[in-house]
């Protein structure tokens, strides 16, 4: 979540879905407790009011794999529900390489509880070398894709984590620096990186669409 009415996610998660089939839950930790969480008003349910998929998204090559979801009603911020900040400064990425404070969180396909994993961001030169080995490689990925590996062996983003955030804690705030897109199978200790969309490459697109929809507010 980057705004009380907007969520940033991976385009491949939503581009084939109908709006009426998309529900979003905020403040949820255990999937099995959803009904009680909603009844206690700890969790909040919203429906998708609009999908904005990047105009140059390519599903085959996973290019520009990023999308915005506008929810039907503003999310109420609480101690457990807060938006992540956007990295508006293009120099922000210089602090990312090998920064153990980068985190991701999600349920994957194997967990009832939300899990947090610590990640290292691979330097862009090494990231480019891994990207060039991918059969669908496109040169634009050298700028738009971020590579990460788990700090601990066997711990990484997993199947079902697509669209999850890559977060950096800086000056007491969490910044959304990446959106999980694709990578090797979960938990493989092969040294292969997971790939995420680099949010700093899309901030202009994000802000332009927010202004277009909200009339510049």
TrEMBL record:
This is AGAP012034-PA. SUPFAM superfamilies: Trypsin-like serine proteases. GO terms for biological process: proteolysis. InterPro entries: Peptidase_S1_PA, Peptidase_S1_PA_chymotrypsin, Trypsin_dom, TRYPSIN_HIS. Residues 1-211 form the Peptidase S1 domain. GO terms for molecular function: serine-type endopeptidase activity. The keyword Zinc does not apply. Belongs to the peptidase S1 family. CLIP subfamily. Keywords: Disulfide bond.
């Amino acid at each position: 979540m980057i705004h009380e009415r907007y969520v940033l996610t991976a385009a491949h998660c939503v581009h084939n879905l109908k709006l009426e089939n998309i529900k979003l839950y905020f403040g949820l930790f255990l999937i099995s407790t959803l009904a009680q969480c909603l009844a206690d008003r700890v969790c909040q349910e919203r429906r998708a009011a609009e999908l904005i998929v990047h105009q140059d998204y390519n599903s085959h090559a996973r290019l520009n794999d990023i999308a915005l979801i506008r929810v039907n009603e503003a999310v109420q911020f609480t101690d457990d529900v807060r938006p992540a900040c956007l990295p508006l400064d293009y120099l922000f990425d210089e602090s990312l390489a090998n920064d153990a404070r980068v985190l991701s969180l999600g349920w994957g396909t194997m967990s009832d509880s939300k899990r947090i994993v610590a990640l290292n961001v691979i330097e862009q030169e090494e990231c480019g070398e891994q990207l060039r080995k991918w059969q669908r490689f496109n040169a634009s990925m050298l700028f738009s894709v971020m590579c990460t590996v788990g700090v601990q062996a066997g711990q990484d983003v997993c199947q079902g984590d697509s669209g999850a955030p890559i977060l950096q804690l800086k000056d007491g705030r969490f910044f959304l620096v990446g959106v999980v897109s694709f990578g090797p199978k979960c938990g493989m200790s092969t040294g292969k990186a997971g790939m995420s969309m680099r949010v700093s490459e899309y901030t202009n697109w994000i802000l332009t669409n927010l202004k277009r929809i909200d009339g510049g507010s």
